[in-house]
Design goal:
It is a single chain. With 120 residues, this protein is an alpha/beta fold. It has one domain: 3-Layer(aba) Sandwich (Rossmann fold), CATH 3.40.50.2300. Helices cover 41% and strands 20% of the residues. It is built from five helices and five strands; from the N terminus they run βαβαβαβαβα. It has a five-stranded parallel sheet with strand order 2-1-3-4-5. It is globular.
């Protein structure tokens, strides 16, 4: 696997855990503590194959990030992971994301969701 995955999560332990998990699965990973940092990296030319984002974060939420990316023309897969199960009622968001995982998500589910979204 040579796909790059960008992770956005404000919780240090989860961000570190997702990074280790996906690196062990063979992905190249960059992790960001907030949506704004991801947008700076994208603005500087970084090009992930997939974004895995939390929803509930200080500053820009995952929902706002997904919408911003799609409106800006970002077409790569985006998988959202969230402890807010009511978010699945947001039909626009569900059309904009490639996959959704409830928090806490089992390790195998995270790897499977990324692989599925990347078509591998």
């Amino acid at each position: 696997m040579d796909a790059s995955v960008f992770i956005v999560d404000d919780e240090d332990s989860l961000r570190a855990g997702y990074t280790i998990l996906l690196e062990r699965a063979g992905y190249r990973v960059r992790a960001f503590a907030c949506a704004e940092d991801l947008l700076i990296a994208l603005g500087a030319g970084a090009r992930p194959d997939l974004i895995l984002t939390d929803n509930g974060m200080p500053g820009m939420s995952g929902t706002a990030l997904v919408h911003h990316l799609r409106v800006s023309g970002f077409t790569k897969p985006i998988v959202m992971i969230s402890g807010s199960h009511g978010i699945m009622e947001d039909k626009t968001l569900m059309r904009e994301v490639t996959g959704f995982l409830p928090k806490p998500a089992p390790i195998a589910d995270i790897v499977a969701a990324v692989a599925r979204a990347l078509g591998s």
